[in-house]
Amino acid sequence: MSEATEKHYRACHLCEAICGVVIETQGDKVVSIKGDPDDPLSRGHICPKAVALQDIHEDPDRLRKPVRRVRGSSGQYEHQEIDWPEALDLAAAGLVDTIQRHGVDAVGIYMGNPSVHNYGMLTHQSALFRHVRTRNRFSATSVDQLPHHLVSLWLFGHKLLFPIPDIDRTDYFLMLGANPVASNGSIWTVPDVRKRIKSLTGRGGKLVVIDPRRTETAELATDYHPVRPGTDAALLLAMIHVLYRDGLIQLRQLETIVDGVEAVGAAVANLTPEWAAAHTGMSVEVIESLAHDFAAADRAICYGRMGVSTQRFGALCQWAIQVLNILTGNLDREGGSLFTLPAVDQVMGVGPGGFDRHRSRVRGLPEFDRELPVACLAEEITTPGEGQIRTLFTGAGNPVLSTPAGEDLDEALEQLDFMVSLDPWINETTRHADVILPPTSPLEHDHYDLAFHVNALRNTTRYNEAVFDKPEGALHDWEIFEALGQRVAAALELEARPSMPPHSIIDLGLRAGPYGDGTEDGLNLETLRAQPSGIDLGPLKPQLPQRLRTPEQRIDIAQSQVLSDVERLLAQLGDAGSGYRLIGRRHVRDCNSWMHNFTRLVKGPGRCTLQVNPDDARREGWNSGAQVRISSRGGSLQAELEVTDDMMPGVVSLPHGYGHGRAGVKTTVANNHPGVSCNTITEADYLDELSGNAALNGVQVTITAA
Ligand SMILES: Nc1nc2c(c(=O)[nH]1)N[C@H]1C(S)=C(S)[C@@H](COP(=O)(O)OP(=O)(O)OC[C@H]3O[C@@H](n4cnc5c(=O)[nH]c(N)nc54)[C@H](O)[C@@H]3O)O[C@H]1N2
Ligand SMILES: Nc1nc2c(c(=O)[nH]1)N[C@H]1C(S)=C(S)[C@@H](COP(=O)(O)OP(=O)(O)OC[C@H]3O[C@@H](n4cnc5c(=O)[nH]c(N)nc54)[C@H](O)[C@@H]3O)O[C@H]1N2
Ligand code: SF4
Ligand SMILES: [Mo]
């Protein structure tokens, strides 16, 4: 007789859409994964990646035990399985030894993107890091959303106060540098965005997409305008100029809480549509009508993501986007952009963040939230002197593939005295580690979306139990942090505070939160356990000024650092340079560097192609399928051409997260679909100088036949 099937309710944690899924299991096997129609946020939606929940769990390449790197008889490195106590002792000893000999700053830390999707890593990383108070902390934030955090800190007083586009109730949506139809949304938890866009345009609303590539999202838009990479700040500032020039400023409900309106008007006085047209490649008419339509719409949203964040003027763009929302009274307004009120309220629970309280040792880049820009990680390892990184800890990250000038980092990692990685795979980064500590599979631990309810277009909450029991002897990520923390504390004679498991922290957070003890909802872990599809807490509501964390609960839009950055824009926009501009690209079946080891997600034609516009191809004599060499100041690589009129002339696109198949990497399927890493040619010194965020988009490249 076959075993009975069991149903498990769960969130998919692979991207920010946090879709609810129903996983059917039989014994220790996953039988099916389907969308959960009862989830109040995702309403049954899933994307093709949801099946990866099973593939991750079953992947034979996923490490089940720690490994240690040793030189084999042939002189090559190999990885040997070791027991947990030995692995933890080894990892802690490496950290302690460096701290004792060179001080805490000689330990570097890099935390990658999945750490934000795994709540135990968020609640418990401090169990280790509080004993390693190094200035050399890094994360994927500085190749991603750093400008968003800064602008939220500056305007709203807290790094996590993100205005969330209220797409379901808007009339006009201006979207720059985002492709949610492929990415499923970012800093905007918006499951089933395709349906929501169709509903917007179906009810007569507009979606206007600004992007150098006619994306999957642009295909659904009412209007699409190509823009030259890295020039959006000019467009946005000229739109603000038009609002002032044509008397279209309308603060509405924000009237009594916004300062700096006059100063911003002065700063944009000369930034005319004519000026912006010359740089962006957009016409004066289009720029003016964008400003007019935005101001005329009853309810409007301006939103921009990776394409306007990881570029040369990322912080200026994100600031201008929010200033457009504010000057038209569309912030904190239904159908505009609103703040969430999550059940576990991180805005009340974690510090607001800070900026430029110290700088990186070699290049003097500013810290944000006690982290340095990862674009300077390699030089902090290779440059001798006091504070040089000698030991590196990485958790849930693959910076060799995901950070600019990744090949330099790849080499730098070999110069370390010691490296430890908390990761389930031997990938391009962790292959350098002396010891790799693999956590339980995602289905073996419980789940709460500590991060993404903060960004969701509706207030909901959901807690899910583990689908499978933890295997004998295995450790969760949080338990590994705890175990390392205890060992390091003991060796350094520091106090190791006892901690509670992540779910108890969530219980406390729920009880103390806005729907907790003493409220009508009375949420706690038990009430959530009883409704594993999630609990609806209603649509986003206006909350200003109470929600602001600025000292006087006011919004000062005339931020001096930002206004000074306009000078840099004026100085740098002029040097358009020659050659092509490189941008990135996401595919719905990718997820950064770690979704290529699952056959179901990589099958079909290779996706790591260089897309170019047909006119460029014709002029250069290139055809689809040809191999070309792409070179930048940082390096060069070879890729296959794909000619498509989705690309605007002069711009080429290559996805990131490829470049597998290197010696020692143990991801069998990915190694057979290696592609090339576009971060071979992105540049460590090409940054948004205001924030320190990497400018991964808009890199100047030349292309020749290979
Ligand atoms: N399928 C899939 N989903 C993902 C991920 C993934 O790898 N694959 N990654 C997840 C992560 S970590 C993130 S941060 C999000 C990102 O989410 P999004 O930002 O929505 O995704 P991207 O595809 O990076 O969209 C960036 C867009 O900016 C455009 N662009 C590039 N340069 C410029 C420019 O100078 N100006 C303008 N206006 N546009 C420009 C690109 O053409 C691209 O369409 O996606 C998440 N979801
Ligand atoms: N050129 C270019 N570069 C980019 C981007 C781009 O658009 N263009 N996008 C950038 C963006 S937005 C981001 S977020 C970064 C991502 O950069 P990273 O976070 O550095 O890289 P990922 O590819 O997400 O690597 C995730 C790693 O986490 C591991 N992992 C997965 N789940 C878990 C878990 O539960 N626990 C542990 N311990 N490990 C786990 C995986 O095995 C993998 O090794 O890349 C950035 N790099
Ligand atoms: S959109 Fe896809 S990857 Fe993202 S949470 Fe939903 S099912 Fe998972
Ligand atoms: Mo990201």
Report on this structure.
This protein is α/β, with parallel strands linked by helices. It folds into 4 domains: 5-58, Phosphorylase Kinase, domain 1 (2-Layer Sandwich), CATH 3.30.200; 77-144 and 352-447 and 473-511, Rossmann fold (3-Layer(aba) Sandwich); 166-332 and 544-566, Dimethylsulfoxide Reductase, domain 2 (3-Layer(aba) Sandwich); 577-705, Barwin-like endoglucanases (Beta Barrel), CATH 2.40.40.20. It contains 24 helices and 30 strands. It has a 7-stranded mixed sheet with strand order 5-4-19-18-17-6-7, covered by helices on one side. Strands 26-28-27-30-25-29 form a 6-stranded mixed sheet. Strands 11-10-9-13 form a 4-stranded parallel sheet, with helices on both faces. Helix 3 links the parallel strand 6 (107-111) and strand 7 (137-139). Helix 4 (146-156) packs across helix 13, helix 8 runs antiparallel to helix 10 and helix 8 (232-245) packs across helix 11 (284-296). It binds ligand MGD (2 copies), iron/sulfur cluster and molybdenum atom. Iron/sulfur cluster binds at residues 12, 14-15, 17-19, 46-47, 49-50, 184, 191. One ligand MGD binds at residues 15, 113, 144, 176-180, 182-184, 186, 210-213, 215, 227, 229-230, 232, 305-308, 311, 583-584, 586-588, 590-592, 697-698.
